[in-house]
């Protein structure tokens, strides 16, 4: 499988397939710092990033927003003093699509830039 952070999101329609349990296990191996969780019955990926202050957290939030616009796939982002919580899921299908894993990997990569 290609590196997730090198892939591009594909357009997702309401009839697109959600990731299977087998795919979930395989994809999670590539983004081990993320947590899959169900919120109101919808599977999502979540990760909390820690920062020294609000300014750094806000700068990271802006990087995530720019990447999300480039991919045309948008997460939930909660920015607080010293931390940012990012949540990926695909609204159109009410669950997880491969796009969410691609964007999670790209979010992790933003820490290095």
Structural summary, described in words:
The chain is built from three helices and four strands. The chain is α+β, with helices and mostly antiparallel strands and 113 residues long. It has a domain of 75 residues: Transcriptional coactivator/pterin dehydratase (Gyrase A, domain 2, 2-Layer Sandwich). Strands 1-2-4-3 form a four-stranded antiparallel beta sheet, with helices on one face. It is globular and about 40 Å long. The protein starts with 20 loop residues before the first helix and ends with a helix. The model has no long low-confidence stretch (mean pLDDT 92).
Topology:
Elements: H1 21-28, E1 35-39, E2 42-50, H2 54-71, E3 76-80, E4 83-88, H3 98-110
Antiparallel strand pairs: 1-2, 2-4, 3-4
Helix pairs in contact: 2-3
The CATH class of the domain at 39-113, by name, is: Alpha Beta
SSE topology string = HEEHEEH
Helix percentage: 25-40%
Structural class: alpha+beta
Number of strands: 4
- Shape assignment: globular
Uncertain spans, ≥5 residues at pLDDT below 50? none
Largest sheet: 4 strands, antiparallel
Shape-level CATH architecture of the domain at 39-113: 2-Layer Sandwich
Strand content bin: 15-25%
Which fold does the CATH topology of the domain at 39-113 refer to?
Answer: Gyrase A, domain 2
The average pLDDT value, as a whole number, equals: 92
> In CATH, what is the homologous superfamily of the domain at 39-113?
Transcriptional coactivator/pterin dehydratase
Strand order of the largest sheet: 1-2-4-3
Could you tell me how far the N terminus lies from the C terminus, measured between alpha carbons in angstroms?
24 Å
User: What is the overall number of helices?
Assistant: 3
Radius of gyration: 14 Å
């Amino acid at each position: 499988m290609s590196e997730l952070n090198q892939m591009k999101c594909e357009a997702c329609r309401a009839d697109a397939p959600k990731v299977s349990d087998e795919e979930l296990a395989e994809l999670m191996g590539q983004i081990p710092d993320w947590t899959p969780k169900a919120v109101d019955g919808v599977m999502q990926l979540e990760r909390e990033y820690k920062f020294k202050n609000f300014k750094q957290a806000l700068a990271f939030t802006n990087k995530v927003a720019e990447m999300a616009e480039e991919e045309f796939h948008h997460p939930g982002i909660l920015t607080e003093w010293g931390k940012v919580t990012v949540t990926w899921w695909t609204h159109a299908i009410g669950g997880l699509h491969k796009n969410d894993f691609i964007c999670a990997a790209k979010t992790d990569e933003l820490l290095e830039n």
